[in-house]
Amino acid sequence: MKELLELAVAIAREAGALQRDRFHEVRTIETKSSRIDLVTDVDHACEALILERIRASRPEDSVLSEESGAHERPGEFRWVIDPVDGTTNYAHGFPHFAVSIGIENAREAVAGVVYDPIKDELFSALRGSGAWLDGIPIRVSEIGQLERALLGTGFAYDVHQAQIDNLDHFARFIKRAQAVRRAGSAALDLAYVACGRFDGFWELNLHPWDVAAGFLLVEEAGGRLSDLEGGPATPEACVASNGALHRVMLEVLGASGPVR
User: Fold this and answer.
1) Domain 146-253 belongs to what architecture?
2) C-beta neighbour count of 229 within 10 angstroms
3) pTM summary value
4) Which residues lie closer than 8 Å to 73 by C-beta, 6 or more apart?
5) pLDDT for 187-239, tens place per residue?
């Protein structure tokens, strides 16, 4: 497991360096599932680099990647990749995005890396061994009152059309929490919960590559994960917290009636 994590770290750093080196270039931007779901030439270049490195070192491992989908192989491990988590930020020159790499065994995350190339911050986790920021152990915060909490969230690419759009939850939390941030990278949001920068995070309609590394970071840093009703967390409905805030976050997410 340690060797796998070291390989993931090396690959993430190399892909992040590519993003950083090309950050100020004119880039090609296309759309995917909606007009706000973007992909750039750098997304494709990073994915190609990551896939090449995995195939060279771990040819038997499967891969699930945002841009090219599933690459099934007979090995026991699967790499779940988001080459650029925060593509809209990258496309606009907003310096908040990351490489996210999760490694699974029998669909359970065993290692994860989230690398922010602009801040040169590398978050990593190994199941049963802990979570780290640049090699230093990290833990979730101890904030237990929502009024003192800084929360993170995001909105899915179908927010313009969807009836379930997270805006009602956002409105309730903005009335209750100290502050709410929507920075545009779920992988970094989860990493920030793990290291105590955020006290909690929730989002709807994410994908496996958005959370594969981040979920493990939160778990190994002592946090709690669930869906909006307290069941197992899924990409489609996830709540991540320091644990102390989890019950009250679920209560806010389960509220009905007008915001007040």
Assistant:
1) 3-Layer(aba) Sandwich (3.40)
2) 10
3) 0.93
4) 59, 60, 61, 62, 63
5) 999 999 999 999 999 999 999 999 999 999 999 999 999 999 999 999 999 99
